[in-house]
């Protein structure tokens, strides 16, 4: 199976966010030069806007995280996953994991 493109990924996250807009925080997925996905409630775009939490992760690592093939803690320890605000990330962890799994 080939990897989702930025457009496909954005569409999946947009659908997930529309179905569950219980995210009271804006999140930006910085895909390490492969694009940006900005999530603010049900509004999802590829604009590089400021966000409460910035998750920096490569596209293939995002897919691996979503499928459970890459452990988030291990990804952080090895620098494959960076979070701008650890406390906020921990608080949002179930929501973020849900988004990751829908993006996989």
How would you describe what is shown here?
With 104 residues, this protein is α+β, with helices and mostly antiparallel strands. It has a single domain (6-103), classed as Nonspecific Lipid-transfer Protein, Chain A, CATH 3.30.1050. It has four helices and five strands; from the N terminus they run αββββααβα. The protein has a five-stranded mixed sheet with strand order 3-2-1-4-5. Helix 1 (6-19) packs across helix 4 and helix 2 crosses helix 4. The model has no long low-confidence stretch (mean pLDDT 88).
Write the layout of secondary structure elements.
Layout: H1 6-19, E1 26-30, E2 36-40, E3 43-45, E4 53-57, H2 59-66, H3 72-77, E5 81-83, H4 86-103
Parallel strand pairs: 1-4
Antiparallel strand pairs: 1-2, 2-3, 4-5
* Main beta-sheet strand count, sense and barrel state: 5 strands, mixed
Which regions have little confidence, pLDDT < 50, spanning 5+ residues? Answer: none
CATH class: Alpha Beta
CATH homologous superfamily annotation: SCP2 sterol-binding domain
Distance from first to last alpha carbon: 11 Å
- How would you write the strand order of the largest sheet? 3-2-1-4-5
Spell out the helices and strands N to C.
HEEEEHHEH
Question: Would you give the CATH topology?
Answer: Nonspecific Lipid-transfer Protein, Chain A
Helix content estimate = 40-55%
